[in-house]
Amino acid sequence: MVVALSLSCGSKTPRQGPPAGAAGMGGAIGGAPGGTGGQTTPPGSGGDTSTGGTGGAGGTSSVDDAGAGGTTDAAVDAIADAPTAVGPGCKGALVCYDFESCATPTGWTVPNGEGNQGAGKTLVDNVMPHAGACSLHMKDFSGDQPQHAYLANLPANFGPTLWGSAWVYTTSAPSMHGALVKTRYSIANSKDVDWYEVGYELQHYNGQWHNPLPPSGLPEWILRSGTPIGVNQWQCVEWLFDAGNGGMAQAADPRVWVDGQEVTFGAGIQYDGNNTHTQRPTTPAGNNFVSIEVGLTMYHPIDETTNVYLDDLAFGRERIGCTP
Length: 324
Hints:
By secondary structure, the protein is mainly β. Helices cover 2% and strands 38% of the residues. It contains one helix and 15 strands; from the N terminus they run αβββββββββββββββ. It has one helix at 73-77; strands spanning 95-97, 116-125, 135-153, 161-170, 178-186, 193-201, 204-210, 220-228, 234-242, 255-258, 261-262, 269-271, 276-277, 288-298, 302-316. The longest helix is centred in the first third of the chain and has 5 residues, at 73-77. The radius of gyration is 18 Å and the shape is globular. The protein starts with 72 loop residues before the first helix and ends in an 8-residue tail after the last strand. 51% of the residues are buried.
């Protein structure tokens, strides 16, 4: 199936939300990060060559119990063409959603297992756009493990490196783990689908890597940052997921930027479904990103009724940034 979508990422007029103070840019949790086992800095990243590793963990323990659900083999074997980015605001993105149709994008589907449970819902509406008329709205999430998201395929032969960006606005900072954006990648000569994610934990931004989907998505590699979630304000969130890692045998750790500043991760935590460990799990290198999942997927109860808005969501092979 070929999905055609006309976009206008560069034509939106900014609209600001309620006034709020500037986001805090907290320091590292548990000291300086260690190396990632050979992670490189791609052109244009503007960062250093290490993003987490062997420092002290710090923070409150919040063990993740992410189930699998999600993508089936068909999502890997039959990749549909995703929307092609157009408009100057997309800055070289291969895929860009500005949500200006004010409707769920063509080709988005509810993923198995994690796309429709608990209180709340995910929809496109005009309540709080960053710019233009509409944005993606994770509406009225509350209670135990609310999970409402959408799955979409990336263009065929996307490659092993994925940059992404979005404007994000949240009305409260969840203390437990929730994923905002997941990206799945295939592994050569295997039906395994590993995935990265960027999301929330301990009222801060975090990045994670997960083992194959299906069956369980475990073990997972949890990287907690010292950058707090800005509440009641728009923030530019960017991420780099490098499954190729310069030809090394293992995929690199995720990297995340908030308002142009790269977050600092503390020590990684491996969770295998029963216990936590400080040893980094094996993260097999991949050859191609195949799909994305967008929404709010909470793996624990959420503290209070929360609304999250996401606008100008873009994916590409090089750094994109956020449209003003």
